[in-house]
Amino acid sequence: MANEELEALRVAITETDNDLxxxxxxxxxxxxxxxxxxxxxxxxxxxxxxxxxxxxxxxKQGQEVGLDPHFVTKLFHVIIEDSVLNQQSLLAQxxxxxxxLPINRVAFLGEKGSYSYLATQKYFARRSxxxxxxxxxxxxxxxxxxxxxxxxxxxxxIENTSSGSINEVYDQxxxxxxxxxxxxxxxxxxxxxxxxxxxxxxIKTLYAHPQVFxxxxxxxxxxxxxxxxxxxxxSAAMLVVNELKSPEVAAIGSEGGGRLYGLKAxxxxxxxxxxxxxxxxxxxxxxxxxxxxxPAKTTMIMSTVQSPGALVDALTVLKDNDIAMTKLESRPIxxxxxxxxxxxxxxxxxxxxPMQKAVESLRDMTxxxxxxxxxxxxDVAPTRVAVASSLTQ
Length: 393
Description:
- There is one protein chain.
- The chain is α/β, with parallel strands linked by helices.
- It has four domains: 2-96, Chorismate mutase (Chorismate Mutase Domain, subunit A, Up-down Bundle); 103-188 and 277-284, D-Maltodextrin-Binding Protein, domain 2 (3-Layer(aba) Sandwich); 194-267, 3-Layer(aba) Sandwich (D-Maltodextrin-Binding Protein, domain 2), CATH 3.40.190; 296-376, ACT domain (Alpha-Beta Plaits), CATH 3.30.70.
- Helices cover 43% and strands 26% of the residues.
- The protein has 13 helices and 15 strands.
- The protein has helices at residues 2-41, 48-64, 69-95, 115-124, 139-147, 167-175, 210-215, 217-223, 234-244, 255-260, 310-320, 353-365, 388-391, and strands spanning 103-109, 130-136, 153-160, 164-165, 179-187, 191-194, 205-208, 227-230, 249-253, 264-267, 277-284, 296-303, 324-333, 336-347, 368-376.
- GO terms for molecular function: chorismate mutase activity; prephenate dehydratase activity.
- Keywords: Amino-acid biosynthesis, Aromatic amino acid biosynthesis, Cytoplasm, Isomerase, Lyase, Multifunctional enzyme, Phenylalanine biosynthesis.
């Protein structure tokens, strides 16, 4: 009797889930029409006043039917983010029809299961065309694969909240002809992966990418005397553990990636910081045009003259044009001891007047200057609802 009652409830839940999916699909079609209207009338993608009003109304309605305000807020943050990204993607496709390919050949670090593989899947899920994955063993190989037309795009990790900037990638950007056309932030959840049940104390060798070891240094210190062996990628580390089938070896990588190699996660969230995210950039042979309705970011590289205050003078140009800088990274110039190349990320569209004015000034006052890319911002900050807390009282 109890089983029959439970089964009936599960059937009702399944029907409700089907209705939810149909409703979400209907909403997505409507947001597509919204994007078409914004393209036609040159309206900005985001209207955070409208978003806040929407959230306040939904929180109130949710309370009336017994839903927790925090749950409603979290749910619609996800829905709004999806809507914004879909609209941005449509506008970008319309502005760059030549970039819409029937097949997207994408190079990334490692093989299936690596974090770069997961980021590639995430980014190109919103792009039209079939995805062809091309795993590579190193960052120079990835760049060369796109430059030689063996791939159309590359996905490269550029920085991590735990281990900081990935210098190898910055050094590649200094010399490549490729342009940055996109970015994404992907959550990184490092897990300890084994082939069979084993106690942590019996593990003698640990395989992972060097960046992973850096991000999990506190966990490694807790393990004590254990041999660490760096691999080209997390997928390569998982493959080694899969092939060895030994109770004395383990890998660090994503839980989902581990399943692809028949590995079991025995401990997760190993990074030094609980909130561990990596930012990836997407590069291609040709730059793209970002519609002015879409929030944009521009990455540039420059070297200044060797005189006191030269860098400060250059950065003052950004301030004078009301351009916000989000990243400043320096790397040594090969062959020029004690000289630095500066990488700068700013919020702004290269087609916009203040950005064009700033770029013109920087070209005149620096020894070397180059735009590495202008691309849509894909980190959609959730709209804050100032009255949300009062609604719960």
